[in-house]
Design goal:
Radius of gyration: 19 Å
CATH topology of the largest domain: Rossmann fold
Number of domains: 2
Largest sheet: 7 strands, parallel
Shape: elongated
Strand order of the largest sheet: 6-5-4-9-12-14-15
Helix content: 25-40%
CATH architecture of the largest domain: 3-Layer(aba) Sandwich
CATH class of the largest domain: Alpha Beta
Number of helices: 10
Strand content: 15-25%
């Protein structure tokens, strides 16, 4: 079998089953496991999968740069944002993550909603400038341009002074085995810090994030109150997540 044919088979298996176990796939094809591992390394370098111990998971398209992500699943993000915004009650203090879904949440907030939004996203903060009744607190720090958010020691220290009712978390991958993941180690650490400062954390996951994975773990699924998504109820990955789903 040609390498291109194996890659097509691997991609098909990833799409159908949500993972590749290198040992099992090699046995199925009657070839060396090292051959499959090499294929997976090449696929990962091309952004076609996320390698994990023993095999691979689907790569998260949401791990692209900020400008590219604005064009990924915009309608799905709007649907997720509407549900996320509905969780914010008058008088709440809410930590709102960065990213394109969080930006959609800012746009979905009712004009008469009195609340305090704490964010490390410069785009989210700018979007809330014109909101008449939302108090905005911006966490300062080094600007991580990939996601247009602040990060680093200064941002983390500022976050530790906050006690919030709710954290609306954005990630690039939601997978039953890999958990909640993102593409940068410092960004993952900042998200963990924010989650530790809120009574409840909900994950905002548009369709392209469900069943996908990125290199760095943010949190295990057991540590969040639920996942907000618009993926159809019969999607098998939703049942495997083992947490409440909000639509």
């Amino acid at each position: 079998m040609l390498p291109a044919e194996r890659r097509d088979l691997l991609l098909g298996r990833l799409s159908a089953e949500g993972k590749i176990v290198a040992k099992d796939f090699a046995f199925e094809l009657g070839i060396a496991e090292d051959t499959i591992r090499r294929d997976l390394r090449e696929m990962a370098a091309a952004g076609l999968c996320q390698r994990v111990y023993g095999g691979a998971l689907p790569a998260a398209p949401a791990a692209a740069d900020y400008a590219t992500r604005t064009a990924v699943a915009p309608d799905s993000k709007k649907r997720v944002a509407l549900v996320a915004a509905s969780l914010i009650r008058p008088g709440m203090t809410v930590l709102l993550d960065g990213g394109t879904t969080a930006l959609a949440v800012a746009g979905a907030l009712p004009a008469d909603l009195p609340a305090t939004i704490v964010t490390h996203s410069v785009t989210v903060a700018a979007a809330l400038v014109s909101h008449p009744s939302v108090e905005v607190l911006v966490l300062g720090g080094r600007l991580f341009k990939h996601s247009a958010v602040t990060s680093g020691a200064a941002a983390a220290e500022a976050a530790r002074l906050v006690s919030a009712d709710l954290f609306l978390l954005g990630v690039t991958g939601v997978h039953h085995e890999a958990g909640l993941t993102t593409g940068d180690a410092d960004e993952a650490a900042m998200k963990r810090t924010l989650a530790s400062r809120a009574a409840e954390t909900y994950v905002m996951a548009s369709s392209e994030k469900i069943g996908a994975a990125s290199p760095y773990v943010v949190l295990p699924l057991a540590e969040v109150a639920g996942v907000i998504t618009d993926v159809p109820e019969d999607d098998p990955e939703l049942a495997r997540l083992g947490v409440p789903i909000y639509r």
